Amino acid sequence: MTPIRIRHDVTPEAFQEIRAAGEPVVMQGLAADWPLVRAADAADFLRGLALPGAVHFMRAPPEVDGRMHYGATIGSRNFTREEASFSGFLDLLAEQAGKERPDAIALQGLPAPQLMPGFAEAHPMALVPGVSPRLWIGNAAKVAIHHDPTENIAVVGAGRRRFTLFAPDQVGNLYMGPFDPTPAGVQVSMVHLTAPDLERYPRFAAAMAAARVAELDPGDALYIPYQWYHHVEALDRFNVLVNYWWDPVADASPWEAMMHGFVSLRSLPPDQRRAWRAMFDRYVFLTDGDPGAHLPPEARGVLGATSPQAIAQMRAMLFDGLRKRLGR
């Protein structure tokens, strides 16, 4: 494993350079002045901001060691979903903190404005203005290896977190589970990073050799580039993470394109798959430059289709083709 590079005093301009490099970076002390980070008691600070009403959270027994995942079979879970008032949720965390072997408890991905109006304004994130923060609160739980279909800034508000990241090209070594069903909404690795079964999943050793790792303190932030796989381990008995997801190409649909590939390409014979792989490399992934550069602009057709109008026309053609195949 390799330590993730650390940067200090990251400005919005420096952050654009970080994004352009496409590599994870720890932005140490980025949120050191946040009221949450500076609070003497982070739980009481959040309790004072929260609206009444129920929150939903996950709870797993001590024997799973914080690893919330599938149960005995794919389709089952080793945790339950529960709800309580936010104050009651904090009381439950405090109760578990006094136990030698606590239940793992995690409130995940709650939009901050939904629970705490004013939180975003009191905890600004100048690197991605306009992106709404989400809250992840719990004790020493572990989030299985997964990836987000967006870019991500994760800020530690309380407690410590250990992040282990894998580049997208490691997907073949991660033994990912099915796209559906999933334990909590996203595809996850079948390997428990903190207790890997290398006899069953031998290629995971290569993934760990290529992994990037960082341990963050309150006020530190981590930039997770698009589609990078990551495992998140909360290390203390009370932890708060604030994260920001955003997609700079929000109207793109690569997931739908992959699903179409499953239907259209995966069952082809090997020689045809090789032919289409070459086509995709040339015309979609642009592995050797602009495929229409040798043509005059007016003759490039779909090779030069980058305007919103041209993209809309191509989508209309795709929809029309799908309707014909479905007989509608």
What does this molecule look like?
- With 328 residues, the chain is an alpha+beta fold.
- Helices cover 28% and strands 24% of the residues.
- The protein contains ten helices and 14 strands.
- The strands form two sheets. Strands 2-3-12-9-14-7-6-4-5 form a nine-stranded mixed sheet. The protein has a five-stranded mixed sheet with strand order 1-11-10-13-8, covered by helices on one side.
- α1 links the parallel β2 and β3.
Rg (C-alpha, Å): 23 Å
CATH architectural label of the largest domain: Sandwich
Helix content: 25-40%
Number of domains: 2
Low-confidence stretches: none
Report how far apart the termini are: 53 Å
Multimerization status: single chain
The mean pLDDT is 94
By CATH, the superfamily of the largest domain comes out as: Cupin
Q: Using DSSP, what is the number of strands?
A: 14
The run of helices and strands is: EEHEHHEEHEHHEEEEHEEEEHHH
- Give the class from helix and strand content and strand pairing: alpha+beta
Spatial order of strands in the largest sheet: 2-3-12-9-14-7-6-4-5
What is the fold-level CATH name, i.e. the topology of the largest domain?
Jelly Rolls
Characterize the main sheet.
9 strands, mixed
Question: Which helices and strands, and how do they pair?
Answer:
Layout: E1 2-3, E2 5-8, H1 12-21, E3 25-28, H2 35-38, H3 42-49, E4 54-60, E5 80-85, H4 86-97, E6 104-111, H5 112-115, H6 119-122, E7 134-138, E8 142-147, E9 151-158, E10 161-166, H7 204-210, E11 212-216, E12 221-224, E13 229-234, E14 239-246, H8 254-264, H9 270-283, H10 308-326
Parallel strand pairs: 1-11, 2-3
Antiparallel strand pairs: 3-12, 4-5, 4-6, 6-7, 7-14, 8-13, 9-12, 9-14, 10-11, 10-13
